[in-house]
Amino acid sequence: xxxxxxxxxxxxxxxxxxxxxxxxxxxxxxxxxxxxxxxxxxxxxxxxxxxxxxxxxxxxxxxxxxxxxxxxxxxxxxxxxxxxxxxxxxxxxxxxxxxxxxxxxxxxxxxxxxxxxxxxxxxxxxxxxxxxxxxxxxxxxxxxxxxxxxxxxxxxxxxxxxxxxxxxxxxxxxxxxxxxxxxxxxxxxxxxxxxxxxxxxxxxxxxxxxxxxxxxxxxxxxxxxxxxxxxxxxxxxxxxxxxxxxxxxxxxxxxxxxxxxxxxxxxxxxxxxxxxxxxxxxxxxxxxxxxxxxxxxxxxxxxxxxxxxxxxxxxxxxxxxxxxxxxxxxxx
Length: 332
What we know:
The protein has 4 helices and 21 strands. The chain is mainly beta. It has a single domain (4-330), classed as Beta-galactosidase, Chain A, domain 5. The strands form 3 sheets. Strands 6, 7, 8, 9, 11, 13, 14, 16, 17, 20 and 21 form an 11-stranded antiparallel beta sheet that branches. A hairpin with a 2-residue loop joins β13 and β14 (205-209).
């Protein structure tokens, strides 16, 4: 069922489901189907926010990079990892058309450079005609996410990438999937270690098994021409797919939570998957380039598409094979 705390969320029908916009919950987006919330939502934390990071779930828009000299999650005084109030606490306001949210926030990076930004999210429900061919239920939406600097800043001082993270409860048997060319450097493991045998590849298709005591993350490089990123959740008969429809021209950056020894431009990931063992959740992530004009950072924006399909394993496999050119042999 949909938690009561989302009763005031704006509901937008889409296919067999509903998209929920919650300005009060930091401007996060949720999806539901058949009366069930598909995203993770930490209801107790949403009802009683903590003094620390309020990791509520859903689809959230963050600024990247997380680590390195331009980091937004590490203060210049050497303090511990934290999430700034503009992301962690400030609510959004509904846009006049009722199909989006916006808030003005202030962010400071590790260089002690402060910027005012407009954090904006616009939502567009989509039809999924392919779903009917396979007898599955569907809910699809597009999100136009942007972080726009009120006043451009020199790129040598301030960089920001729009980073959209969709979070889901981890259930037994869940695993990530995606497509990308099998070129050198296609999969970036410069986060928390190499996934080893958990990562299975078949041509352009790959699968990443969740589970184990250690957190895990991979990135998918732009050079590998990735098609999509997503996850299969067998316990819920659920398929999740995400893809970037378009993004502003710009410079891709290393968004990882590390010191980035080869510099902020040492990675060019478009997609990422994160698994957090202690919190029992996983994330499917998309990243936009930094838009730089005349040596100044002006912002970052991208339009993504999120698909939810619910059906039997055979129905999901048929859909993945025929509509998304995915080799389901990784699902073994």
